[in-house]
Amino acid sequence: MENSKKRRTYVRYTKKQVSAMREALKTEEPRLVIAKRFSNEWGIPTRSVYQKLHNVANTKRTYKKRQVTTTPVAKITPSKGIELTGNMVNILNHMKNPTKVVMYNDHVRYYYN
């Protein structure tokens, strides 16, 4: 009768172990392989490590690649010179007058002190 009772083992993981799990999840290695490796390394049952890996994977952030979007700030025309476009006009209206303006071939720099 005693052998039929199931025993539950509760495992507490250190911060170092959890961070190692997070680093391992960043690789494309299957979770079961990671769980077996950590269970051999730490002497913890594989099922416990696999469950913890699953919980850590659900709580970790998903990172999205940001796409860089550029908007033209100024148009350069030979007849009119430089025309500010888009939000740059509104931004410059809210700022103080520049103390120094330097014009280059492809851009303009405004210095505020």
Helix and strand layout, with pairings?
Blueprint: H1 15-26, H2 31-42, H3 46-59, E1 74-77, E2 81-84, H4 88-94, E3 100-103, E4 108-111
Antiparallel strand pairs: 1-2, 3-4
Could you please describe the fold and organization of this structure?
With 113 residues, the protein is an alpha+beta fold. It folds into two domains: 12-59; 74-111, no CATH class. It has helices at 15-26, 31-42, 46-59, 88-94; strands spanning 74-77, 81-84, 100-103, 108-111. It has a two-stranded antiparallel sheet. Strands 3-4 form a two-stranded antiparallel sheet. β1 and β2 form a beta hairpin. α2 crosses α3 (46-59). It is rod-shaped, with a radius of gyration of 30 Å. The model has no long low-confidence stretch (mean pLDDT 82).
Tell me the number of strands.
Answer: 4
Could you list the spans in which at least 5 consecutive residues all have pLDDT below 50?
Answer: none
How many structural units, i.e. domains?
Answer: 2
Tell me roughly what share of residues is in helical segments.
25-40%
User: In what order do the strands lie side by side in the largest sheet?
Assistant: 1-2
Number of helical stretches of at least 4 residues: 4
> What structural class do helix, strand and pairing data support?
alpha+beta
Listing every helix as H and every strand as E from the N terminus to the C terminus, the arrangement reads HHHEEHEE
Q: Main β-sheet: number of strands, strand sense, barrel status? A: 2 strands, antiparallel
Distance between the termini: 84 Å
List the quaternary state of the chains: single chain
Structural Rg: 30 Å
| Average pLDDT rating | 82
